[in-house]
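Reminder: ligand-aware prediction takes two inputs, not one.
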Amino acid sequence: MKKRIAIFASGAGSNAQKLIDHFRHHAFASVSLIVCNNPGAGVTEIAAAEKIELLLVDRTSLRSDEFVQLLQQKGIDFIILAGFLLKIPGSLIAAFPGHMVNIHPALLPKYGGKGMYGQFVHEAVIRAGEKESGITIHFVDEHYDHGAIIFQTTCPVSGSDTPESLAQKIHFLEHQHFAPVVERLILKEL
Ligand code: GAR
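Here is what comes back for the chain with glycinamide ribonucleotide:
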């Protein structure tokens, strides 16, 4: 039986797309569900194009026992947060111990926490005059951007970088590393 991955995403979904591509013909894992809290998000179009089941949630449904049960019924083994902006409730974390991973567009523990997502992260990094930034892939616990770190890698920040140009560098790193890191994690379980 292939391991079943659920991707949680709120935005454009470029990382979701990379994960889907990576696992499309994979022997041991597949992306079988996309969970999104924003009906207008680009990732919903990706789900439709890829014919992957889409589940729309809100803050309340995410917290319900029924939601955990639904994921379990669907046989989900791993939850991958790829730009998902709602806080993950404790009930979900308890149901998927060591099986929920997030990607953050900075070098945690710096530039994490509530409100630190997307452009806000890159703006803060540039404002602080950092010479490098990067990505962090980590397990999810009950605090924002806090769980054990699995992988980090860096990129330089130059004086001429804008939040937009830094976002491009970060997306490049994310697209290169996220799916292989998730794959390594899944393969360890086999
Ligand atoms: C990614 O850069 C991801 O690291 C970030 O949102 C972006 C989603 O892009 N996540 C966070 O900021 C979480 N705190 P995408 O929709 O193109 O994959």
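The CA atoms of residues 1 and 176 lie 27 Å apart. The chain is about 40% helix and 25% strand. We will return to this case in the review session.
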